[in-house]
């Protein structure tokens, strides 16, 4: 007499294998993506922090220059230079941060492609 194996009896083992396979194959890529994102976010944070320090130093220097002006024309010249420099600095910094964000996205996608394996689904 042939013995039938109840699929319900096999389910816990199959489910465990599925979960282990998902962790190994599916979530491994997610961990790599998260790592790339965290490293990128940390680099961007450091870059922005450095920029803020740079701008504070320039702002203080501009204030000192304004306080030493002897005429309205001289103050206007200092103000105009301050505005030009600030706009250039902020535009350059924005471009740098956008590039860094693009690199983070590329790194995340690259990590995902390199770590992709057959999913157990």
Question: Could you say which overall geometry the principal axes of the C-alpha atoms support?
Answer: rod-shaped
Question: Total strand count, please?
Answer: 0
**Total helix count?**
2
Q: What ranges have pLDDT less than 50 throughout 5 or more consecutive residues?
A: 5-11, 117-121
The main β sheet shows up as:
none
Number of domains: 1
Mean pLDDT: 81
Q: What portion of residues is helical?
A: over 70%
Walk me through this protein's architecture.
By secondary structure, this protein is mainly α. It has one domain. The chain has two helices and no strands. The protein has helices spanning 7-67, 72-115. Helix 1 packs antiparallel against helix 2. The protein is rod-shaped. The chain starts with 6 loop residues before the first helix and ends in a 6-residue tail after the last helix.
Write a brief caption for the model.
The chain starts with 6 loop residues before the first helix and ends in a 6-residue tail after the last helix. With 121 residues, it is mainly alpha-helical.
Task: Give the arrangement of secondary structure elements.
Elements: H1 7-67, H2 72-115
Keywords:
121 residues; mainly alpha; 87% helix; rod-shaped
């Amino acid at each position: 007499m042939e013995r039938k194996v109840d699929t319900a009896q096999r389910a816990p083992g199959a489910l465990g294998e599925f979960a282990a396979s998902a962790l190994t194959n599916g979530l491994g890529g997610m961990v790599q993506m998260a790592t790339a994102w965290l490293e990128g976010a940390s680099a961007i944070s450091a870059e922005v922090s450095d920029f803020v320090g740079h701008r504070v130093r320039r702002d203080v220097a501009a204030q000192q220059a304004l306080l030493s002006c002897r005429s309205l024309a001289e103050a206007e010249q200092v103000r105009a230079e301050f505005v030009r420099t600030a706009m250039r600095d902020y535009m350059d910094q924005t471009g740098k941060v956008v590039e860094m964000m693009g690199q983070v996205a590329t790194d995340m996608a690259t990590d995902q492609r390199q770590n992709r394996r057959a999913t157990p689904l």
